[in-house]
């Protein structure tokens, strides 16, 4: 019974949470410029993945934005991400590279994880499997689809507050 309830809770939460991310599914990314997502800029902190999470996004410059992510659990850095959002082919592309706490890369040297733009709404931008949503000047949510070895996909929500 315990396993059944856990499975049911997992299924229901996946269905309910999956409404915040979308897939590109063979379509072309829509036209967009970096200024369309300038509202992501800021220093954001929250709690997720069993610790404190931090993201910093720079203002647009050179048709791009640069971001960094850090996860700290029990005062120990678990991993980092370096991120960019760039204008490419009249649209936007989000790229991420992961690093251990000692800056050893997870992806191969010349590889990154890419999230093409799917659509933009007021204060919400949908990349393929990752969504930014600005609630107000002091709150930002990020929704990310995580893929597990068994190929299950689960959406995780990161609640951020401004770290001003």
Task: Describe the model.
With 164 residues, this protein is mostly beta strands. It has one domain (2-162): Lipocalin (Beta Barrel), CATH 2.40.128. It contains one helix and ten strands, in the order αββββββββββ. The protein has one helix spanning 2-17, and strands spanning 42-48, 51-57, 64-73, 76-88, 91-100, 113-121, 124-127, 130-136, 139-147, 153-162. Strands 1-2-3-4-5-6-7-8-9-10 form a ten-stranded antiparallel beta barrel. β4 and β5 (91-100) form a beta hairpin. The longest helix is centred in the first third of the chain and has 16 residues, at 2-17. The radius of gyration is 16 Å and the shape is globular. It starts with a helix and ends with a strand. It holds the Pfam family DUF6265. Keywords: Signal. InterPro entries: DUF6265.
Strand proportion: over 45%
Shape: globular
Instruction: Return the domain count.
Output: 1
Note the quaternary state here. single chain
Main sheet specs: 10 strands, antiparallel, barrel
Rg over CA atoms, rounded to whole Å, is 16 Å
Q: Catalogue the unreliable spans.
A: 1-17
Structural class by SSE content: mainly beta
State the end-to-end CA separation: 47 Å
The whole-number mean of residue pLDDT values reads: 89
Q: Give the CATH topology.
A: Lipocalin
Number of strands: 10
Report the CATH architecture.
Answer: Beta Barrel
The strand order across the widest sheet is 1-2-3-4-5-6-7-8-9-10
Order of helices and strands: HEEEEEEEEEE
CATH class: Mainly Beta
- Tally of alpha and pi helices: 1
Helix content: under 10%
